Amino acid sequence: MIWKWLKRSWKSSDDKAHSTVTIPEMLDQLAESNDFLAYNAHTNNGTVYLSYSNPLVDADILHNHLLPQLVKYDINSIEDLSKAIPFEQKSMTMDAEEAEKKIMNGFVSVQLQKGDHQTILVPAGLSRARQVATAEVEFSVLGPKEAFLEALDTNLNLVRKRLPVHELKVDELSSGRLTKTRIAVLSMEGITNKENVDTVKQRLNEIDFDQINDSSFLAQMMADNSNSIFPQFIDTERPDRVASALAEGKVAILMDGSPMALLAPTTLLEFFVAFEDYFLNWIIATSFRVIRVCSVLFSIFATPLYVAILTFHYEMIPRDLMPTLITTRREVPFPPIIEALFLELTIELLREAGARLPTKVGQTIGIVGGIVIGTAAVEAGLTSNVLLIIVALAALSSFTTPVYKMSNTIRLLRFPLLLAAQFWGLIGIVICGTLIWTHLLRLTSLGRPYLEPLFPLRLSDFKDTLVRLPFSKQSLRPIQMQTEKIERFKRKRAAKKKDIDE
What we know:
Shape: elongated
Number of domains: 3
Distance between the termini: 84 Å
Structural class: alpha+beta
Strand content: 5-15%
Number of strands: 12
Low-confidence stretches: 1-19
Mean pLDDT: 86
């Protein structure tokens, strides 16, 4: 007890000492860096003391809008100085911590003279960001082309432009002891479940890390199960998808310095939904979704089934196919598991090399390398033609997943299934698949079931998962969101379609 009291006393004394740092002491500490400037600027009847971080301040604002105003007026007090500065977002403070935070975000400290304990903070931040460009990760032929940038204010503008209503609420936080990263939590008042919003803000406030450089850091630190390979947040670069998710009742997280937004809570089936589906006829969109799900299942189980059948279950091979398999494997000296691992690892190496190299070189490596290595492996008798086709199709199938992080998960799942197929055949695949399914049953996103609407079974939520029904049939928001207002529109009114001459 005495030791705890001493620790508490030391901590409180340290906090008190930190809080008693004055503005002159804080400015002297910042001046130890060569990129921090502090000097006296001449005014109409004297001088004022300016302090700022040179890389963060826009020289045009400083020299064309701030300094010329100081020459026009007689400045005898801090009040006169405040009146002479024509900036709406200026603030006067004696708090050293607040002053340091704003100076390191592009504000200029203006004082009557060096050593004053009071300062006026003037916004003069330098904004350098790329122009709004088209989406690269979630590119679509139809629909809007805009994508998020690394600038938080620009990203908020892109969302506000699509939801110009007062119900859209933005709660701004900061995270990272060193980076002090700005984070915005977006929600729709009257629609979004407040429990979800509070959960997101609580988890953000509980993050204790020195640097937060991208929204992927937040997704890992806020996940319900950080040890799961399944992503529990949808990351997107499309403002239109964020606006749609907010209207549906989700919570969106935007971060300064990251071009990706996070959406939660989410479900497994949502990772196979491309936003372009909503720009197509509902029958076509549904067909594409079914194709994606079937492609994912093929990508995960095709190679393990090949290994299991050729190793343990010869009787399952059709009689007409048996001669072909015997012919292709006659010169192969390795068991199926070795050639399968060889091809799978080769595909992963080509994919990783293509991703790390410059774009044009990476495309060449992926195409030429795949053709050359595949042909050489078959001619050398290291693998069979049949398995090469299966592995290539499985790799192509994994690319159909619209969300990149889920495609990484699918790529990884094949390897434990391959090993299980080698040791126990089809029983091993069933055991491994059962373990994966059990994990998914227990997994949650912001406390909501990850497998909804499959578990718990909610038939009404199937209208926009594996299938996409017409918009007139989607009058209710998903039950999983637990929204305050579940109805989107009056279904009876939407069902009435009368022409103008009727």
